[in-house]
Amino acid sequence: MTFQSPLHISDSLLTIGGTRSFVYHGDRIPQTGSVIVVSNHRSFMDAFLLMSALRQPIRFACHHYMGQVPLVSQLVENLGCFPLAAPERRQQHFFEQATHLLQQQQVVGIFPEGAQPMVKKTPAYDLGQFHRGFAHLALRTKVPHLAVLPVAIASIEEDTNSAVPLRLLTLFDPSEPLFQQPGWHPMIIYRRVNLLVGRPYWITQPDRDRYQGKQAKAVVSELSDYCHAEISQLLQAATPQ
């Protein structure tokens, strides 16, 4: 492992931040083949936590603006993340990049709630609706032994600060409607956090065979709903009583 490896960077940043993380059901993490990790998302620390929990680099798809902001873009590059392209090429770029990585048997990370819970502070155990791009990716990517792994990030103790005014971020991505609203981009720093690994969904040939015509919407919904339910149940189980 080199000093600048994504895993080393993640471990170092968590140590510097004084974050204590605890991993549950680690035996569910696939040890072979390509993996798509999907997780809830409230903090800039989520990518670091997931890499540290899985003990391997994860190539995260991240918001377009993160590739435009000085210093942030350098950190994103060092972590091996790939910022999404501008809106006119965003979907095509995402599928091209993620498919290439999965074909190399790498781990791709996706936060299917999108940017909404990042720019508007949400309760620690809430889970928003999922965008279904990750399900389309899993079903159209023809790589063997592909697993979709849901992981819940359950905060136990955290601090919240105001990072930057949301409208300032329009300088880097004027196409994002979320940046047009007043207020500040919250910065959530975990002090103690649980990472609960869900049961992987293994993509089978029958799944891919159904991903066509009128059946395509149904199989996409099944995969997306499965991952949402897994993460939701893990968060509910972790909710303090």
In short:
The protein is α/β, with parallel strands linked by helices. The protein has helices at residues 6-16, 46-54, 72-78, 90-103, 116-119, 133-140, 205-210, 216-238; strands spanning 20-24, 35-39, 59-62, 82-83, 107-110, 147-165, 184-197, 201-202. The protein has one domain (6-238): Glycerol-3-phosphate (1)-acyltransferase.
What does this structure look like?
This protein is an alpha/beta fold and 241 residues long. It has one domain: Glycerol-3-phosphate (1)-acyltransferase (3-Layer(aba) Sandwich). The chain is built from 8 helices and 8 strands; from the N terminus they run αββαβαβαβααβββαα. It has helices spanning 6-16, 46-54, 72-78, 90-103, 116-119, 133-140, 205-210, 216-238; strands at 20-24, 35-39, 59-62, 82-83, 107-110, 147-165, 184-197, 201-202. Strands 1, 2, 3, 4, 5, 6, 7 and 8 form an 8-stranded mixed β-sheet that branches. β3 (59-62), α3 and β4 form a beta-alpha-beta unit. α1 crosses α2 (46-54) and α6 crosses α8 (216-238). The protein is globular, with a radius of gyration of 17 Å. The mean pLDDT is 88.
